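re: ur question from yesterday

yeah so i grabbed the chain u mentioned. its 82 aa long if i counted rite. heres the sequnce exactly as i have it in my notes:
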Amino acid sequence: MQSSILEVAVSGSILGCMVKCAANIRPQRTLEFLVPHLSGRLHSALEERVDAQRKADVEVQFCSLLLGELVGFGSPPTFFLH
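ran it thru and got these structure tokens back, copy pasting raw so excuse formatting
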């Protein structure tokens, strides 16, 4: 996943809504794919942080926002309520 929208909060919120919809429809498949994928990207961005501070910070913020949306930080994880 990559964003061409420069503002991470905007692009992350838009994609976060899409991720929540996917998790509501197919929770197991969505979580099985996205949690490891986003965690891996977050881990890589943190490792790269030493070399390219700005790019890594944006990547960390973006992946953190998506993971938060996916697992329900800040809002109830509705896919567990069904």
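noticed a couple things. The mean pLDDT is 76. also Helices lie at 8-25, 27-48, 53-71.
anyway ttyl
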